[in-house]
């Protein structure tokens, strides 16, 4: 009777006055921060269980008996809508779930970087292509420090223009693998002439429009192709947001008789595949790693080798001409400040997460070859490769009284354990009984025991907190102080 009464009363309370958790949920409007959550369902992969979960984290208890990892707030992972990004997001979901964490997978609405980090709307993004975001990558990570760069994901990204390799069988002497073939009218004649290619409308509108120099009415037409008898050919692209402006400026810079036809993210691959099935001669934009490239015989068209100075100028001003190949992208992992603060025990996991080139390609091939979804391919890899990802998972905390240099003593569940100092903090004390010390102003602490000096200090200026033998030195910016355990 009592129990029943209590239940009735509490239901009434919840209906009449939303609980604190409900208020937080309702007031957090993900879409205002460019995040798509699939309504309230999220984009999580179906669960993928380890046959023998020996990680230990899922059994770790709080003092009140509840499970430590499961009782923390969900971790928000963001993927972008291509295969390799999804494979990594789902793999991370599986690992974190095996550790007992709750995970919510989300995606971006518009392909822009930053707003989600300035507002701590997501925790982790695992495959960031810095060049895609122009100057905003440096703004977000280095200047505003709204996101923490956790280093490279392991494999590189490469964009390029491709032709199907069967063209070499049909025209053995035509050197489609080098950009100069584009200057030969006879070689060009087998490709679709500008304006004759497929026309894709998205909700009745061209894929992009109204941005001279980038895209007008779904196309980019350089000056050399604007006259009726220009004999230009079409290059098929996805969306002007991908590798934004790069091929436009390369077409301008090398005076290529080429126009760009944007086919939209949703339709480009199907359209290209359809032309390949019919053994057509086409020139198209793509990138690696993708299951599309991993599973097809394509040949990349080489441009003069990358000139970094040229691309640095282009990064500042995207009207600057290009004449060389884009550089290979070192793909980065980013975390929000809130993730580092709320999950200090996971920073080493996120930093150590490294997917080798051959392994991401194996998953991508499995998708194309076996007709698997990204969720299925990453589940298969997760079950078979604990020897690889197991090294990323930190040891289950053991109770300790003090911690060595570079680590702090944090409460994880019912036990105190040593956790590597998260970015924004440091520890130089060999028997540290506290959490890591917050990084002082004018210094930068990437984590562990490293402290970078950002400002010139006179010999007398020593922040009280930092009194330490080594600080008897005068310091210059860019000096790096690392203390190792003696
Ligand atoms: C959430 O934000 C979007 C975009 O800013 C806005 O259109 C929408 O009305 C907001 N929803 C709520 C419930 O506030
Ligand atoms: C979005 O949520 C629905 C359930 O509301 C689910 O059936 C669907 O699979 C989800 N979409 C994706 C891409 O995960
Ligand atoms: C846009 O391109 C389409 C297809 O080439 C053409 O029919 C249409 O007239 C163009 N619209 C404008 C505003 O130029
Ligand atoms: C790619 O080329 C190889 C060797 O020429 C061939 O065995 C394979 O079937 C081709 N694959 C596709 C998808 O065309
Ligand atoms: C910590 O180490 C320092 C120097 O090694 C020593 O002076 C101090 O007594 C130690 N403190 C504790 C609590 O062990």
From TrEMBL:
Gene3D superfamilies linked: Glycine betaine-binding periplasmic protein, domain 2 (3.40.190.100), Periplasmic binding protein-like II (3.40.190.10)
Keyword Signal found: yes
Ranges of residues in domain ABC-type glycine betaine transport system substrate-binding: 74-171, 235-384
GO molecular function: transmembrane transporter activity
A Pfam family matched in the record: OpuAC
Signal peptide location: 1-22
Organism for this UniProt entry: Rhizoclosmatium globosum
Source organism superkingdom: Eukaryota
Recorded GO CC terms: ATP-binding cassette (ABC) transporter complex
InterPro entries: ABC_Gly_betaine_transp_sub-bd, Growth_fac_rcpt_cys_sf
Keywords of this entry: Signal
Name the record gives this protein: ABC-type glycine betaine transport system substrate-binding domain-containing protein
């Amino acid at each position: 009777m009592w129990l029943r009464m209590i239940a009735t009363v509490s239901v009434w309370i919840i209906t009449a006055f939303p609980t604190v958790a409900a208020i937080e949920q309702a007031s957090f409007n993900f879409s205002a921060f460019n995040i798509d959550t699939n309504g309230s369902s999220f984009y999580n992969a179906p669960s993928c269980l380890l046959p023998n979960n020996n990680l230990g984290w899922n059994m770790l208890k709080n003092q009140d008996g509840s499970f430590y990892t499961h009782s923390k707030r969900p971790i928000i992972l963001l993927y972008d809508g291509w295969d390799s990004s999804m494979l990594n997001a789902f793999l991370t979901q599986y690992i974190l779930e095996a550790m007992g964490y709750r995970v919510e997978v989300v995606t971006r609405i518009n392909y822009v970087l930053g707003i989600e980090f300035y507002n701590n709307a997501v925790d982790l993004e695992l495959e960031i292509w810095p060049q895609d975001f122009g100057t905003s990558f440096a703004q977000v990570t280095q200047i505003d420090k709204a996101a923490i760069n956790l280093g490279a994901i392991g494999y590189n990204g490469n964009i390029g223009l491709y032709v199907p390799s069967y063209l070499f069988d049909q025209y053995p002497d035509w050197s489609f693998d080098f950009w100069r073939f584009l200057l030969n009218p006879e070689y060009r004649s087998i490709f679709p002439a500008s304006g004759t290619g497929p026309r894709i409308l998205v909700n009745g509108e061209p894929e992009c429009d109204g941005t001279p120099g980038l895209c007008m009415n779904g196309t980019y037409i350089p000056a050399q192709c604007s006259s009726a008898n220009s004999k230009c050919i079409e290059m098929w692209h996805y969306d002007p947001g991908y590798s934004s402006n790069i091929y436009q400026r390369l077409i301008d810079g090398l005076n290529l008789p080429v126009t760009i036809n944007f086919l939209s993210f949703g339709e480009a691959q199907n359209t290209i595949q359809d032309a390949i099935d019919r053994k057509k001669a086409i020139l198209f934009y793509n990138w690696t790693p993708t299951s599309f490239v991993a599973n097809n015989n394509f040949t990349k068209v080489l441009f003069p080798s990358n000139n970094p100075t040229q691309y640095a100028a282009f990064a500042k001003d995207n009207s600057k001409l290009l004449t060389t190949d884009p550089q290979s992208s070192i793909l980065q992992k980013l975390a929000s400040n809130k993730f580092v603060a709320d999950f200090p025990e996971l920073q080493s996991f996120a930093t150590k997460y490294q997917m080798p080139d051959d392994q991401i390609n194996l998953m991508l091939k499995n998708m194309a070859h076996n007709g698997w979804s990204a969720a299925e391919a990453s589940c298969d890899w997760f079950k078979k490769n604990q020897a690889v990802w197991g090294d990323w998972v930190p040891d289950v905390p053991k109770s300790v009284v003090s911690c060595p240099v570079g680590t702090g003593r944090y409460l994880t569940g019912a036990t105190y354990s040593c956790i590597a100092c998260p970015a924004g903090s440091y520890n130089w004390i060999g028997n540290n009984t506290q959490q890591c010390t917050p990084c002082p102003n004018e210094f930068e602490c990437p984590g562990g025991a490293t402290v970078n000096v950002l400002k010139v200090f006179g010999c007398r200026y020593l922040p009280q907190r930092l009194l330490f033998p080594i600080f008897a030195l005068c310091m210059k910016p860019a000096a790096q102080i690392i203390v190792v355990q003696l």
